[in-house]
Amino acid sequence: MTARLDIIAEGYADDRVAGTVSLIRDADAIIVVDPGMVASRELILKPLADLGVSTGEVTDVIFSHHHPDHTLNAALFPNARFHDFQAIYRGDIWEDRPAEGFQVSGSTSLLETPGHTPQDISTLVQTEDGLVVLTHLWWQASGPLEDPFAEDAEVLRSSRARVLALEPSLIVPGHGPAFAPNADTPI
Predict the structure, then answer these.
(1) CB–CB of 44/34 below 8 Å?
(2) Residue 187 maps to a domain
(3) Which of 35, 46, 89, 103 could form a Cys-Cys staple with 82, CB 3.0–4.6 A?
(4) In a domain, 21, yes or no
């Protein structure tokens, strides 16, 4: 079983900031990853509509971490359960669980990858083209080599090495276009 992944808003970080927002469709699961800051909510809503997905159909939302550029538009998805590093949230229910290895759907799971923040998680998606990792360990293909927000550079490097050891076919970073990792990918 494999999932379909679509990037619905490609992020950037320079004089303005927007997070990369992604859509995963995996059997009955419709998952949005990092519905954060974008120049206009239409940059999330229109691509979803073009793909035939209404906000009420989204079953799950995953936050790579709790910075507003990755969470700001979560309320667009009223029927979703929300996932972070420590729990699942739905309505007024808070269900503690570790993210490590949590299976969100048949082809989508979570991996604890501290680095950008101590609470970062990455989303692993098995697609027909191979493993795709959605993560904020990289902002874009070139890094940055040293994340200015990382509290511990060694923890960041360790999590990057852990992700690269999975041999993903594609990495979807927090603020840039998806890239195929290679020998030049910063650790």
Answers:
(1) no
(2) no
(3) 89
(4) yes
CATH number at residue 53: 3.60.15.10
Q: How far is CA 5 from the centre of its chain?
A: 11
E strands, the chain, are: 4-9, 12-13, 17-18, 21-26, 29-33, 60-62, 81-83, 87-90, 93-96, 103-105, 108-112, 121-127, 130-134, 170-172
**Domain containing 26: what range?**
4-172
Number of structural domains, the chain? 1
- On whether residue 90 sits in a domain, the answer given is yes
CB 62 within 8 A of CB 33: yes
Calpha distance 87→73 (Å, rounded): 19
CB 120 within 8 A of CB 143: no
Domain assignment present for residue 34? The answer is yes
Number of helices (H), then strands (E), in the chain: 3, 14
Mean pLDDT by 10 residues, the chain (187 residues): 94 96 98 98 98 98 98 98 98 97 98 97 98 97 91 96 98 97 95
Written as six digits, the tokens of 185 are 């990918």
User: pTM score, two decimals?
Assistant: 0.97
